[in-house]
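Task 17 of the worksheet. Students: predict the tertiary structure of the chain below and write it out as structure tokens. Keep your answer in the requested format; marks are given for formatting as well as content.
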Amino acid sequence: MTINTQLSPEDLNNLNYRVSEFNSMLKENQKIVSKNTLDQADFMKLLITQLKSQDPTKPLDDKEFIGQMAQFTSLKEINDLSENIRIMNREFAFTKAVSLVGKTISWSDENSRYNTGVVDSIKVKNGETFLNIKGMEVPLDQITEVRDASTESDIIK
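Model answer:
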């Protein structure tokens, strides 16, 4: 006994129309936002959908399934590595800022004015590190010069 898995042209057109209609409804109701990358959840949803909708007479090849699971594992490891690098960058900025406490720095503010002052302390807000100079918060990327704090007369008030 053979099972015909081919769709007639009429059935195929009807199916394509229903899929397009369903996708349009999803976009309207759920406000689907397009994103440029796939995360772990997206990959897992694709894999589960593929397994659910596969042709029972032609199940997923073992090698193909193992390859997809390896891709999923690689994606998870890359995401973990990326998060670890972000954490390291934040910690590096904090360490760099700690080394500047008590030093005289020069920086240019958003109005392109140059300022000089001694770093009193550091502050971390929303993962970004700031230097505290007499109540002003200076981002690390605005620093133009660092030198040992000398006398108070060298500092512009």
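Marker's comment: The longest strand covers residues 103-108. The first helix runs from residue 9 to 30.
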